[in-house]
Amino acid sequence: VLAMNHFFLAVVIIIGSGILPLLFLWRRFVLMKAVASFGLTAGCLIGLIDAVVKLSHGVDWVSSATYLHAFYLAFRMDGLSAFFLMAIFLVSLLASVYSYHYMSDTRKTIRVAVHYLFFSLLVASMALVVTAANMITFMLCWEIMSLASFFLVVYNYENDGNRKAGFLYFIFSQVGAMVILAAFGVIYSHAASFGFDAAGALPETAKMIVFVLAFIGFGSKAGVFPFHVWLPHAHPAASSHISAVMSGVMIKTGIYGIIRIYMMLDWHISLFGHLVLIAGMVSGVLGVVYALGQHDLKRLLAYHSVENIGIILIGIGIGMLGVAAGNPVMAVLGFAGGLLHVLNHAIFKSLLFMGAGMVLHKTGTRIIDLLGGLIKKMKITGITFLIGSLAICGLPPLNGFVSEFLVYMGSFQGMALDKTSFAMCLLAIVSLAIIGGLALACFTKVVGVVFQGEPRSQVAENTDEKGLTMLVPMLILAAACILIGVFPTFFMAMAVKAVASLELGYGGIPLKPFFELTGNISRTAALVFAVFLLIVAFEIDQYPQAWHYPQAGQVTQRIELN
Questions:
Q1: What are the angstrom distances between the C-alpha of 71 and each of 134, 191, 193?
Q2: How far apart are CA 318 and CA 463, in angstroms?
Q3: What is the DSSP letter of 550?
Q4: Nearest to 88 by CA among 133, 134, 52, 132
Q5: Would the pTM count as exceeding 0.70?
Q6: How far apart are CA 384 and CA 382, in angstroms?
Q7: CA neighbours closer than 13 Å in the CB half-sphere of residue 346
Q8: Is there a contact between 360 and 235 (Cβ–Cβ < 8 Å)?
Q9: What is the per-residue pLDDT across 105-147, written as a single tens digit (0 to 9) for each?
Q10: Hey, which residues does 77 pair with through a beta bridge?
């Protein structure tokens, strides 16, 4: 009961942090921001600690209340819910801290207060979505989440592009919700119950219809190709900390829905794995290909969300194939890799969006070609953005490598399966390699053009890096990328505990060799990287003149003299 109360206490504090400042403090801009930001941070911190404790100790609870004297609002937290709550509360906590200095326009006092109201509703509804235990509760919380995020997207409603992005997002979110409702309708038509447990007793044809409908509905929220159309428009339109929350965790509720439906149906056929794998490979490859052609920094990052949703789906698809084939090691590695990438992507994508937000906040532009040389005056932003870029490319010793390597190992376990599954696993391995290579090319361009070289316009010259509450979250997220990469065992074990809640009947699987291999590769890469940095530091100390880059005027003068 005490553990249950901590979760609802966190939700109440989060909602209160949006309502009270709007009602009583909207005239006092700084105080209103401080109360809203601090309250959101406190609520998310309580929720984060509670989720970590529950996942570590395997605590499971159920709670319900009557709704309109006719329906029950039912909530349940298991290992899967707790794992997603970790990502939701962590990113939302840091985004609320980041927002204090980012929302600095005193001319928009009421609008900022309303912004915090919908921000709090978004965080609370995401937490309630992943703990909903029946259809009525789920759809109610899902709609609150969709509407709150819509109002956050249209924050700058005077901009025509933002209004169009909000309208497109609204259409996709509501159509997606209708398809999910149709899937729930099929379940109710057979079971005459709003409970999720009834789905397991459906005939096989109905189960197939439910899974396909749910995959389309949840896939539209997750940004799975071809339902991703809204994503590259909505994410750049929102404020940067909201972009971090939407890209980092909100779209993951779609992933949660796909996994939860798979659990509910209790029908483990290879066709489900093939469907999810194909969607993952197409989304991953096309997402990074589209990102390569972008010149808007936030739009580029939005396409990389499509890419990483693809990687997560590849992991989940491998897990489904492993379950269908009766290969427990393949199943656990696939699901654990996919789930760990949910957390890892939440961390490094939030970091990248916050870095892009700092660039936008200080320069006033998102156009990559107008920037350049920013690392000279924005060192923390530049270094943390570089760490996030390396992490999203899946390079050791950072966290993106750990989850992708688990998916790789799960895919290699499928080499001994039947011809179709073998071909799918082989394609998954090739797709992951292509995605990683193209992502590296893309972020090499981004870091080089935005942060290195010389300023390409006036807006890139007069910059600074003030705003402590914007810098601290980026430093924490960059540190998390390194921590999970160098010491991955604890986090891999947490992902495996979340997989255990899927009730696949696997216990005592020898995963220690895979964990040790991943950790050894990552720590070796960290050692090599540390030696490289020491050599660079020594060279700079011994030959400082060799590392001095002359200004543009000096170069011109030397050419003229020659």
A1: 10, 16, 11
A2: 46
A3: P
A4: 52
A5: yes
A6: 6
A7: 28
A8: no
A9: 777 788 888 989 999 999 999 999 999 988 888 999 999 999 9
A10: 61
